[in-house]
Amino acid sequence: MFEQSQIQEFKEAFTIMDQNRDGFIDKGDLRDTYAALGRLNVGNDELDEMMKEAPGPINFTIFLAMFGEKLKGTDPEETILNAFKIFDPEGKGVLRGDDIKYHLMSQADKFTEDEVNQMFTNFPLDVAGNLDYKNLCYVITHGEDKEQE
Hints:
mainly alpha; 8 helices; 57% helix; globular
């Protein structure tokens, strides 16, 4: 299901999240992980919902299986690229940030301003105000920037 390098990255993520180093991720570990990321006001209900996604105690095997289930629903990279290419008839590989924001906020499952801003925080526009959608598609389907490989 995963390549060895991906399994190693998941193991590193699991180790970071397993704050108390007991081999399991529990509600306390999730709360501590959020705190380490700067989010201090995570409610018990939200944490309980996350914990309910697991079929049992979250050891590394369960953690890996959960990621496999989440990623299984991801469209192939080519499908996602083709969706973006509709907005890029010249095939430049980038979209104007203002255009993509307009489409995300006005079409189908409309994004909120906060959701668009969060996306641009995670995938910043270049100096010309463009979104590199080819890199975005790669990250969605592979989990890391091409440049970081």
